[in-house]
Specification:
It is globular, with a radius of gyration of 24 Å. The chain has a domain of 120 residues. The strands form seven sheets. It has a seven-stranded mixed beta sheet. The longest helix is centred in the last third of the chain and has 26 residues. 49% of the residues are buried. It has 19 helices and 23 strands. The mean pLDDT is 94. By secondary structure, it is α/β, with parallel strands linked by helices.
């Protein structure tokens, strides 16, 4: 009876918070899912909804249609609002604050009438290599192919018909926010994936803007760059209100009322930093999935141009360096699957948790060699810029005297998975002497306690923390940024430390000195052996079955 009463009391308490507007809504457009998360003033998720989608090729470029954007948003919102009504008996007529986030970069260009000029070009497109090279050289600042300015400049270089008509361009989050509020603004973190941001002024790098405008092919246009860009805003800045038209667009039922104050729209890198409490200088996070990136908040600008490091900012406008690798778990998952098939063939099938846990723990058993016993693995299913590979091939290799056993094999698999992202991280820590106090790891590979943390701590020679809240994801992080509008008199890093994560459970693995030496030995063999990968690309057809 007591448990029932406590549950009823909790429902009543949350219902009162919903009526009082003590809630924040975060909606994030990921590459495969749009997710809406409603939190209360204790940062607990009280309702959620989502919508699955996928990019498609349009005229040879990866895109999502405008119809998909709005259908997906409305569906995710409706599922969340339905969750509220079912769980708490309340229709969602208003929300305390709202914030939108999305996958960064890409290109959404509009004319004076607000009409989309060409289909949305996502971050996945690599048709901007010429622009990437020319702008990186011009600015002496890395401009990756996926950045919005690379898309715009490539369109200029290609003499695309629409270029002269551009009146405004933005990211996906900026587009949704604009349509719901009428404000052409962008969170500074998302903005930093459009064009370089000055970490002192938290606005566009003015010298780079001048350099860009002075390019002959740009000077010939009827616009200047500053005319086209949204206004960057730091976290905690009110970024407009939900208009009547915007409310109807978000909730066509008419239940949600206009007037809700919105947070600056952010990118998925920024919401990931918030979700892992990694916005303080000298902290960072490692997001591990099909691909992997490691991000560190910097104390200063880098001394030189490094193509291996992307420079973005936190939602507060502090500069962060990112090492991004295209390849991570695909090869590892394939090998684990093979062991699973072997278990089935023996008549003793095991569930995925047991399978991964058993194999992962073998990698840190007492009898393993710290350097993986001379085994080498290349996990490149796709091309990898960090390793100089335009294509990928999956290769496992060993010398005749290598110590081949299960522990060493799994250790080589895990070592190799973290090796590509280490290339860019080493540029920061060894070439630029970036100081890192701690990194937070998040992603499925950290589900097995201790193992991936211990391996990553050795790879980066840095303590690795895994937090219980890391699984909440970017939509939750955006909801927290929306809540921050009530607390903007406190610095973002202090707000996260003192309010959001004050009681968050976590575990930390410090680097083991022998593991660090072992990983460095493996990594030296990994890099020296890269010609093996080039030979495999030449010898093995991409489509071979």
């Amino acid at each position: 009876m007591a448990a029932t009463e406590n549950a009823a009391e909790r429902v009543a308490t949350i219902a009162e918070k919903i009526r009082a507007g003590k809630t924040s809504l975060g909606i994030e457009f990921g590459s495969t899912r749009i997710k809406a998360v409603l939190i209360d003033d204790t940062y607990a998720t009280i309702a959620s909804g989502d919508f699955g989608w996928a990019s498609h090729l349009e005229d040879g470029l990866w895109s999502y249609s405008v119809e998909e954007i709005w259908t997906g948003l409305q569906t995710a919102y409706a599922a969340m609002a339905g969750d509220v009504e079912k769980a708490y008996g309340e229709k969602l007529t208003h929300v305390g604050h709202i914030g939108f986030s999305a996958m960064m970069h890409g290109y959404l260009a509009f004319d004076e009438a607000g009409e989309l000029l060409v289909p949305f070009r996502t971050w996945q497109n690599t048709n901007t290599h010429e622009a990437h090279e020319k702008l990186s050289e011009l600015f002496q600042y890395n401009i990756p192919e996926r950045w919005s300015i690379a898309h715009l400049y490539q369109a200029v270089l290609n003499n695309e018909e629409h270029v002269g008509k551009v009146a405004f361009f933005t990211t996906l989050a900026g587009y949704v926010h604009w349509k719901l509020t009428g404000k052409k603004v962008l969170g500074v973190g998302d903005a930093s994936g459009m064009f370089p941001i000055d970490p002192t002024t938290h606005t566009w790098e003015t010298e780079f803007v001048k350099q860009f405008n002075a390019l002959p092919e740009v000077a010939a246009q009827p616009w200047t760059l500053e005319d086209l860009l949204p206004e960057p805003l730091v976290a905690g800045t009110p970024a407009g209100e939900l208009t009547a038209e915007g409310a109807a667009l978000l909730d066509p039922t008419g239940t949600l009322q206009p007037g809700v104050v919105l947070a600056p729209p952010e990118g998925d890198a920024g919401t990931g930093m918030v979700a892992t409490n990694s916005v303080r200088v000298r902290t960072g996070n490692v997001s591990a999935g099909t691909s992997i990136f490691a991000m560190v908040v910097l104390e200063r600008k880098l001394e030189r141009l490094h193509p291996e490091v992307d420079l973005v900012t936190t939602p507060a406008g502090d500069l962060a360096g990112m090492s991004h690798a295209n390849n991570f778990t695909s090869d590892l998952n394939a090998w684990v699957g093979l062991f699973g098939q072997f278990a089935e063939a023996l008549g003793t099938p095991v569930d995925a948790g047991t399978l991964y846990g058993t194999l992962f723990r073998a990698a840190i058993a007492d009898d393993v060699d710290r350097n993986a016993g001379g085994l080498i693995n290349y996990p490149f299913r796709a091309g990898e810029f960090l390793a100089g590979l335009s294509e990928g091939r999956l290769v496992f290799a060993r010398g005749p005297e290598a110590n081949m056993n299960l522990g060493n094999f799994m250790r080589a698999q895990l070592f190799s998975a973290f090796s590509p992202v280490k290339i860019g991280m080493d540029v920061m820590t060894k070439d630029e002497h970036v100081q890192v106090d701690s990194l937070v790891g998040h992603g499925g590979i950290f589900t097995t306690p201790k193992v991936a943390q211990k391996i990553l701590a050795a790879a980066f020679n840095t303590p690795i923390k895994v937090m219980a809240t890391a699984a909440e994801g970017g939509a939750w992080g955006m909801a927290v940024l929306a809540d921050y509008l009530w607390h903007a008199d406190t610095a973002l890093d202090a707000y996260l430390d003192e309010r959001v994560f004050a009681d968050a459970a976590s575990t930390t693995e410090a680097p083991d000195a022998q593991d660090v030496v072992g990983f460095e030995d493996f990594f030296d063999r990994f890099t020296k052996g890269l010609p093996i990968e080039h030979a495999a690309i030449a010898a093995i057809p991409l489509e071979e079955r």
